[in-house]
Design a protein that fits this description.
Largest sheet: 9 strands, mixed
Strand order of the largest sheet: 12-10-13-15-24-23-22-19-20
Number of helices: 13
CATH topology of the largest domain: Rossmann fold
Number of domains: 2
CATH superfamily of the largest domain: P-loop containing nucleotide triphosphate hydrolases
Length: 453
């Protein structure tokens, strides 16, 4: 399987612009399967726009090496891709620890035995770009850095000087350089980039990135590197449990401006277990569709709180669905939506607590949670991994630890100690998780949906 990892020396070097532009440029003549290292939901939305193919996340905190390879294989085979292009996260070696590479781009590159292209912010650099390249190559000899892309060069003269330095002093080929251009930058908000689903200008912007790549990057050289990818180790582990719900169920999934943070394989795990996904909009539709369960992902409900609050028929239908004991699983923004209010505006009110946006990040971490109560997705006395990233908080005014399904071993959750409000058959948590972390997710949730029809 032909592939490449596009990584950077750090955050803010232009990885997403360059990676998405490369995906767009190559998609004109080839089938591209995009991937994103780490738990991010937003960058994959740009990949989807560039390629017309759902991007998949690869994460070594969530996945074993065998699961990383399986997830990569799933993506490549399901889309019949010619090339797999993997956008890294932060700097190449950044992970959860200063001394190992769990959660890093380097861990994904090694699990997939993939060639790597290093993106360098070349502002005011010439020979130092060569030094950076040498340092990144020297830290781990198992990382195969096959090329460099120079971003933010001042001029053609600057590019040629820096290219010569990297190729002669670091013995690494330079595939091209991108000059500074503020017109191609992306809008941002408190959780980072704005999802492509919200940006009306995204199609034109992605097209512009593709043109920029065609004009400045040696795509033939890049494809040659991918064509010569070394074999992937033939050791795979399943992403979800082979146990399969025999009964057919229907599961509602909101997907609109407010809610759009979902991992592709979470939805596939539900479909594997005979669930039919019914997409709907809590903003635009009048009520919940006729379903057996509800899965509310994250997003930006705080940005669209007025629209959500005005849709009273939808709020009432979801509250009644919970009161009727049908299973609901909600993550982060979904948790806020199920609270009494968001910033004082009425919401679903399954949980009688107020949620609000704050000016400071409240939780930004990989998480480890211990399950203390059975719930629609997990059984008591298990432990699972996830992540949290939120500027919001929920003002929990109760005093009973049994209100929660999870106790936090790593991360903040709702109270600093607990997460996963559980009422009726409704579970709502700040934790985002991936089916690789809990292989029985699809089976448990669909089984609960069937048993509580």
């Amino acid at each position: 399987m032909k592939r490449v990892v596009l990584t950077g020396t750090g955050s803010g070097v232009g990885k997403t612009t360059i990676a998405t532009g490369i995906m767009k440029a190559l998609s004109d003549e080839h089938k591209i399967q995009p991937f994103k290292v780490g738990p991010d939901y937003i960058d994959p939305s740009y990949h989807n726009c560039a390629t017309g193919v759902s991007s998949r996340n690869l994460d070594s905190f969530f996945m074993s090496d065998g699961q990383i390879r399986q997830s990569f294989k799933n993506g490549m085979t399901s889309s019949h891709a010619d090339y797999g292009i993997i956008e890294g996260v932060r700097g190449l070696y950044e992970g959860i620890s200063p001394t190992n590479d769990i959660g890093s781009t380097s861990s994904i590159a090694k699990a997939l035995n993939s060639p790597v292209i290093l993106i360098i912010n070349s502002r005011s650099l010439v020979r130092s770009a060569a030094a950076m390249t040498l340092g990144f190559k020297a830290l781990d000899s198992r990382i195969d850095i096959e090329g460099v892309i120079l971003n933010n060069v001042k001029s053609q003269k600057h590019y040629l000087k820096t290219k010569e330095a990297v190729e002669k002093l670091a013995n690494t080929r330079v595939l091209g350089g991108i000059e500074r251009d503020n017109s191609i930058s992306m809008e941002q908000r408190h959780l980072g980039l704005i999802p492509a689903v919200e940006q009306e200008r995204i199609s034109g912007l992605v097209e512009k990135w593709g043109e920029l790549i065609r004009e400045n990057i040696d795509l033939d050289a890049l494809m040659e590197i991918m064509d010569n990818s070394n074999p992937i180790i033939n050791e795979y582990e399943p992403i979800w449990s082979p146990n399969k719900t025999k009964h057919k169920t229907r599961i509602a999934v909101p997907f609109d401006e407010a809610f759009n943070f979902y991992y592709k394989e979470n939805l596939e795990a539900l479909e594997y277990n005979n669930a039919k996904i019914e997409y709907f909009s809590p903003i635009h539709d009048e009520q919940l569709p006729s379903v057996d369960a509800l899965y509310i992902g994250g997003g930006y409900p705080e940005i669209f709180k007025k629209e959500l609050s005005k849709n009273t028929t939808m709020l009432e239908s979801i509250k009644e669905f919970s009161q009727d004991n049908h299973p609901i699983y909600a993550e982060c923004g979904g948790l806020m939506y199920l609270c009494k209010t968001i910033d004082s505006l009425p919401m679903v009110d399954v949980f009688p607590y107020h949620s609000m946006l704050t000016k400071r990040v409240q939780g930004l971490s990989y998480t480890i949670a211990h399950v203390q109560r059975d719930n629609p997705i997990l059984k008591k006395n298990t432990t699972y991994h996830g992540h949290e990233f939120h500027y919001s908080k929920v003002e929990y005014t109760g005093s009973n630890s049994n209100d929660f399904a999870f106790s936090m071993r790593r991360g903040v959750g709702i109270t600093g100690k607990y997460d996963g409000l559980l009422k009726n058959n409704t579970l709502a948590s700040y934790i985002h998780t991936h089916t690789a972390c809990l292989p029985d997710f699809g089976y448990n949730f669909t089984q609960s949906a069937y048993e509580n029809k």
